[in-house]
Design brief:
This protein has about 140 residues and is an alpha/beta fold. The protein has two helices and eight strands, in the order H-H-E-E-E-E-E-E-E-E. Strand 1 and strand 2 form a beta hairpin. The relative contact order is 0.14.
Length: about 140
């Protein structure tokens, strides 16, 4: 077999391999027919469930809190849950020392019950090395 024929065969094999990958990914993506027929939500689908009653969520994403300033009525919401969505590890620390988390890796959560504190503006920060990301929770009654 000549060099030219060998190159053509290599290109052909690479093209067939690429085609098999594309067809395979098309056939295997999405929920199975059994999941669809049963009316179930596919397990690979990301769903956002509402937090339990009395809990609100703050997400740590892309180096900032979402929301960074939170107002809550402790008669309705007592607990704030932080979720670290960043690949970096953070420690949450209240400015007044009322709470401090363990290091939170990606996907980790930390909760604090603000009904245990006097009403006011409670400042906190996420620490990553020397960087400090500020946030606050305002638990004062509406004025």
């Amino acid at each position: 077999m000549g060099r030219r024929n060998l190159m053509k065969a290599g290109v052909f094999v690479a093209a067939v391999f690429a085609l098999v990958l594309v067809v395979g990914s098309i056939l295997t993506s999405g929920p199975s027919q059994a999941t669809i027929d049963a009316g179930r939500v596919p397990t690979t689908t990301t769903t956002t469930e509402p937090p339990p009653e009395g809990v609100t969520i703050v997400r740590l994403n892309n180096g900032s809190f979402r929301p960074s300033v939170l107002q809550i009525d402790t008669n309705v919401i007592q607990i704030v849950q932080w979720i670290n969505e960043d690949p970096r590890e953070y420690i949450l620390l209240a400015s007044d020392g009322s709470f401090q988390s363990e290091p939170l890796g990606q996907g980790d959560t930390f909760e604090f019950d603000f009904s245990t504190l006097e009403p006011g503006i409670h400042r906190y920060e996420a620490l990553i090395g020397f960087q400090r990301i500020p946030g606050s929770v305002d638990t004062r009654p509406e004025q």
